[in-house]
Write a structure and sequence with these properties.
The complex is a heterodimer of chains A (113) and B (111). Chain A is mostly beta strands and 113 residues long. Helices cover 0% and strands 50% of the residues of chain A. Chain A has strands at 5-7, 10-13, 19-24, 31-37, 44-50, 53-57, 64-68, 74-78, 87-94, 103-104, 108-112. In chain A, the strands form 2 sheets. In chain A, strands 2, 4, 5, 6, 9, 10 and 11 form a 7-stranded mixed β-sheet that branches. In chain A, a hairpin with a 2-residue loop joins strand 5 and strand 6. Chain B is an all-beta fold. Chain B has strands spanning 3-6, 11-14, 19-26, 32-38, 45-51, 56-59, 62-67, 72-77, 86-93, 99-101, 105-110. In chain B, the strands form 2 sheets. In chain B, strands 2, 4, 5, 9, 10 and 11 form a 6-stranded mixed β-sheet that branches. Chain B starts with a strand and ends with a strand. The chains are: A mainly beta (113), B mainly beta (111).
Chain lengths: 113, 111
């Protein structure tokens, strides 16, 4: 069984640039969620995808967008990067069941200069 | 608005003792309460969950209680070990809604 993998693990961008983060979900999981975690804070929900459709979104502006592919892998895109976007971006997959246990990747550490 | 509170101060405990972490919530009626462990620079790891109609759940040295009247969960690690040192996150889920996390409590087990 393959766990959740994310790429890249670290990246540095400058303000105004765009970034794409990638996630492969755990085998058998059809739901992917993305979270942003600032230093010393808990993960903040960005959005969730179920069978290629966005089915939940947190309090993030439209410049945060995503995709889910037929193999359930996913992308998070952030346009017009701001300094406050510097954070650990976590992808989590789940089976879509109501109890919703999440299985996280190791995250992508984004630094915006 | 929904709020999940965990002790922001680190909890230091002697090896072998029981560590007890608290999670309080307001403006929420979760169907499930989950606990995760997070090591520095790593993604959270799911530990266990408890349903709203369950009072207590155990898994090896871990025990979780869930009091929907007090809107509180307690997370216990018995016979704590230095390897248990990490940040522990409480998370709530209602129905098919998103999973919402607290800020976490950092536990340090001192040999």
């Amino acid at each position: 069984e393959t766990g959740v993998t994310q790429s890249p693990t670290h990246l540095i961008k400058t303000r105004g640039q765009q970034v794409t983060l990638r996630c492969s979900s755990q085998s058998g999981h059809n739901t992917v969620s993305w979270y942003q975690q600032a230093l010393g804070q808990g993960p903040q929900f960005i959005f969730q995808y179920y069978r290629e459709e966005e089915n939940g979104r947190g309090n993030f502006p439209p410049r945060f967008s995503g995709l889910q592919f037929p193999n359930y892998s996913s992308e998070l895109n952030v346009n017009a990067l701001e300094l406050d976007d510097s954070a650990l971006y976590l992808c989590a997959s789940s089976s879509g069941g109501i109890s919703g246990e999440l299985f996280f990747g190791e995250g992508s550490r984004l630094t915006v200069l | 608005s929904q709020k999940i509170e965990q002790n922001s101060e680190a909890l230091n405990i002697q090896e072998g003792k029981t560590a007890t972490l608290t999670c309080n919530y307001t403006n929420y009626s979760p169907a499930y309460l989950q606990w995760y462990r997070q090591d520095p620079g790593r993604g959270p790891v799911f530990l266990l969950l408890i349903r709203e109609n369950e009072k207590e759940k155990r898994k090896e040295r871990l025990k979780v209680t869930f009091d929907t009247t007090l809107k509180q969960s307690l997370f216990h690690i018995t016979a704590s070990q230095p390897a248990d040192s990490a940040t522990y996150l409480c998370a709530l889920k209602g129905g098919y809604q998103k999973v919402t996390f607290g800020t976490g409590t950092k536990l340090q087990v001192i040999p």
